[in-house]
Every structure is written in structure tokens, then in C-alpha cells.
Fold each of these.
Amino acid sequence: MNNFDFVCPTKIIFGKGTENRVGQETKKYSKKVLFVYGSGSIKKTGLYDKVVKSLKDNDVDYIELSGVKPNPRLSLVYEGIKICKENGIDFILAVGGGSAIDTAKAIAVGALYDGDVWDFFVGKAEIEKALPVGVILTLAATGSEASDSAVITNEDGWYKKGIHSDLIRPQFAIMNPELLYTLPQYQTAAGAADIMAHIMERYFTNVRNVDLTDRLCEATLKTMINNVPRLFENPEDYDARAEVMWAGTIAHNGLLDTGRIGDWASHRIEHELSAIYDIAHGAGLAIIFPAWMKYVYKHDLDRFVQFAVKVWDVDLTFTDREAIALEGIKRLEDFFRNIGLPVTLKEANIPYDRFEEMADKCTSNGTATVGQFVKLTKEDIINIYNLAK
Ligand code: NZQ
Ligand code: ZN
């Protein structure tokens, strides 16, 4: 096991009715906040009214910034930064999924910086301070409610890039599984794929003697496998929603990383897809992850056998270890397909003519490698896009 620092300061407020505590929690930080949300789902579900009431009941003033799009855009981040600077706002409340939360985090960093916030995304500046952020989560997927990262798309060139810092972990995350009942099935499915991908990115490591985190990863994946199908039988299955929602936070708050080095190639390769084709991040991962696995499994066959046996219950009496590993990958693919996700580029109607461009963007024009488990070159990435056809 490697040395590690583990920080996860986010206060999780979990369960029925917890959204009504938002004003009470927010006022501990500020009486003047920026309230960030998406394209209106929170108005349809009635959550908006509850948030406004709770803020008003607690004498918290707010300015709204709505219109966050999935694969959130830099232009709205600039708008939020301007509002914060002009109005002396010192707290940001995000209500929604990963896109609203990531927009809030990027604004939080940019509001205390004199230069262009994009500097942080391209490594021109290091994050030294950020406004505090609070969250009400409405989609179990990205883990952004407690993660140290934010991912933003710059429309100028369609670059999708992330920042990482413990300073942008939210102060609190309010998580009521009932708020997820209104999710379209496709978003539930894409969210599930994202959660599973966050676990698998960590699972496939070259670090040895990481038994505890291996078992935690396997248990979290099994929780997903057992509970996600229940949401397709009954979207209002509270217990299944609760298991999946909590798994989503655990998958990406850093706990499963402790003492090991994750891979993250699939995420990087996927981000190029969602930047250009604007598909849901989780759907992109359902396509890329199995293709990545087929490309790299021989690098550590034992680990892929372990994945097949411990996560997917593949029968060890299979005589051929390679067949066991491949069966594990197939079961993952079947799982994604069964919840209605595309598992090939073709199924997502993505054309095959920009592989080179995406691989270039991913590897800084072929000068860098991607991933830790296997360090992939530009050529490898093109091969993986080809395997995903
Ligand atoms: O915009 P609204 O109207 O709210 O609708 C949203 C949006 O259309 C809708 N939705 C959310 N909650 C709902 C709901 N509809 C009905 N009922 C509800 N309860 O769902 C749609 C998708 O929302 P979005 O926030 O875009 O989805 P998600 O949470 O999957 O976020 C995806 C973004 O997060 C990034 C992704 O790359 C992508 O840009 N990621 C962020 C990470 C992080 N910060 O740690 C890590 C991830 O790996 C990921 O890269
Ligand atoms: Zn992800």
C-alpha cells in the first residue's frame, strides 16, 4: 500500500426531507449566496420552491444563476464569477447534478482570482483559494457532491478539462434519494455507469497489497449491480435509490483511492467524446470502458480474473483464465446494455471520422501518455476508439 493523505470534509446530510434544511446549513456560511441550477428540472419537481422558502425562512439573500447545461460550459462560469465579484457574494449553492455542482466549483475558484479561470484548467495557475460551496444533489452519478474535482467545457475549441483541489470539495451535500424519482431512465442509467466507472478506474491499479480498498471497491460495485436494476422496475424504490446514491458518493470521495494509484484513461478518452458529441458522460463511459478493458486486460490478467470472479461471480471452474477475464468484461457490457445504455459508438450514433483529433487532444498532440495502469499513447487511444466501434 502506498502512503496517502485522505481529506473528505464534506458534511453529508442524507435522507427524506433533508432539502428543507438548506437555508439553515447555508446561513452558517453566508447570508448572500449565488444559487446555481440547470435548465428547469428543479422547478418542475417543486424543489426550487422548497429551496427558496428555506433560504427566505433563514434570511439568506440569493442571486440566481440558471441555465447550466449538461457538459457545463465556461461561458456560464464567467457569468457567475462576474455576479459574485460585483455583488460581494461569498458562498455558492448548487442544486442539481454534476453539471450544476461543477459550475459552482469553477465559479468558486474564479471569484477569488484576478486572471482567467481557465488558467486553472490548463495548468497555468494553481488553486490557492476558493469560495465555499454547498450542494443539494438531484442525480447520483459524478460524485461531485464530495469530490475534489470539477469538469468544464470551453466552447472555444470544445476542450473539456478538469481541475482538482481539496479546496473545492463542498462544505455540505444534502442528499434525499426521493429527489431522484423524477430522473429520466436514461439519466439514471448513465449515472450508474459513471459511478461504476469511478470505482473501476481505481480498481485497475498496479499497486500491490491493497486488499482493503480492493474489497471496498468490489462491495460498492456489487451494491450497484444489485440495486440499479431495481430502479428500472420501480423508479420510486427508496431503498434502491438510497443505496445507489450513497454508492455514488463513496465511489468518488477519495476513500476508494487510499493507498493506490487509479488509472483514469477511460475518463480522459470519454471526455473527448462528450466534449465534441455532447453525449451524457456516463453513456460515453459505457462505450469506452469495455473497449479499454479489452485492450489492456493482458497487462494484468490476474486482476481481471479477480474482477470477473469477485464482482461478477464468474465461475472459477472455467479452465482458461483468459476466458474468465473476458467473461467478466462481457458481463459488464451486458449490464450496461440491459439498462439501456449504448456500448458501441455506432449505438450512440457517433461517427468514426474524428478519432485522430480526439486522440490528439487527449495526449497534447501525441506528446503525453494517458492512464496509469497502462500508459496509453495516441496510437493506443485511436486503437481503443476503433475497438469501441
Ligand atoms: O438541467 P436540469 O433541468 O436540472 O436537468 C438535468 C440534466 O438535463 C437532469 N436532471 C438532474 N436531476 C434531475 C434531472 N431531471 C429530472 N429529475 C432530476 N432529479 O439530468 C440531466 C443531466 O444532468 P447533469 O448534471 O449534466 O448530469 P451528471 O450529474 O451526470 O453530470 C455530468 C457532468 O459531470 C462531469 C461530467 O463530465 C459531466 O460534465 N463529471 C464531474 C465529476 C466531478 N466533478 O467529480 C466527475 C465525473 O467523472 C464527471 O466527469
Ligand atoms: Zn465520471
Amino acid sequence: MSYFLKLNNVVKYYGEGESRMKVLNGINISLEKRKICAILGPSGSGKSTLLNVIGGLDSVDQGSIIIDEKTDITKLKRKEIAQYRRGYLGFIFQFYNLIPNLTVRENIQVCEYLASNPLSLDELIETIGMAEHQNKFPSQLSGGQQQRCAIARSLIKNPELLLCDEPTGALDSKSAKDILVLIENVNKKYGTTVLLVTHNVDIEHMAHMIIHMKDGSIVSSIENSNRKNAKDIEW
Ligand code: ADP
Ligand code: MG
């Protein structure tokens, strides 16, 4: 079996001396390409830390993180990590981090300029359902529309891996559903592998793989053979 993402015994501590705390306690994950993996677990269980180390935003103390069966990102130098982030990775968060004085289109365009192999801007704006809002500024948009724009900003470079840290955490349930449907559409249309941290347990129906974390450990990891399409789920 070939895996797009493989974590082997990843250990991460925060703090020094007395206050040193093990935040990731030997994490193992094997995820195939083009799959959606949901990560669930209580607050403080290490979900964000896990995404951050996979995204090269933070270092590990032990273990390996192998992308595409060849690159161990824990061994990369600073410059190579920047390359990995530029070439492979999209990252979205609970908050949208849009540039307030640029329109939707311009917000996405600044990311397009940085990409070596960008998607078509017009097609992407269409895919995220923002064609009619593309010339508006972030302050003129709802939370859900701002998150669509943030998703497009991370997708325009056509990343292989999309890391989503509670992307619906600040949204009402209708907008949250729309965002999850969008993420699934992106996964289908562009073949993007998705790691999605969420508190929305209904995600279990949509994900190909479901990981439950507690106190820095994976307590269960399940392949979901009965998955449904996001739009058919009663969110
Ligand atoms: P989750 O995303 O599941 O809520 P986090 O990964 O944010 O959990 O946090 C896991 C644990 O690590 C928590 O106890 C948190 O307080 C601690 N932690 C997170 N980031 C830092 C940091 N930069 N410095 C010290 N401790 C941290
Ligand atoms: Mg978190």
C-alpha cells in the first residue's frame, strides 16, 4: 500500500524543565492520496499541534513525517520547508486572515502570483461559489463567504495536501455545512488530500478516515467504508 502521508511515532513536547509536557505521544498515521481524514478530540488533545507539525510550522522531538513516500519533512532545512509549504500545502484556520483592503478576487490573486503552477482563477472563484461577490471587500461578506475566500487563497496554488484547523469553528450550522460540502467538492475535483480538524462529529459520515485523539494520543483510527456525500448528510 502506498501512502501520501505517513507519520511514524511522532513525539512533541512543549515547555522546559518542570513544565515540560508531552503534547504528541507517539502518533502514527497512514493516509492515502485523495482521501479526507477527520481528526476529532477534546480541546487540548493536540489536534492543532499535529496539523502544525505536518504543516512544517512547528518541529517534532522524535519520529518522522513522510510525504509522498520520499520526503521526511522533519529532516528538512528551513529553506526546504518553505519550498514544501509553497509547493504542497494549503492551510486554513478558524479565522480567515484575509487582507481587508483587497477584494475577494485580489485576495486570491496575491496568492496566485506566488504560485508556480496555479489553478485557473476564474474557475476557482466559480468552484467556491463567489463569482458574484468577487469584487467585494472582506467586510462586505458573511463569515461563510470569507471562509470560502480563505479556502480559495490556499487552493489557488493547487496544493496536494490541505490542512484545515476547525475551518467551521466560527460559523453557524448552515454556513458550516456549506464549507464542508465545498471542502469535499475540492477533494473530488482537484484530488486534494485533506486533513480536517473539527468539533462537528457529523463529519464522521463524510470522511474516508476518522481519527480520535485524547491527551496527545490517537485513541482510535477508523477507515470509513460507509461514507456519504457531504450534501446528503443531515448536518
Ligand atoms: P487542540 O488543538 O486539540 O485543542 P493543541 O494542539 O492546541 O490542542 O494543544 C495541545 C496541548 O499543548 C495543550 O495542552 C496546549 O495548552 C499545549 N500547547 C499548545 N501550543 C503550545 C505552545 N505554543 N506552547 C506551550 N504549550 C502549548
Ligand atoms: Mg486546536
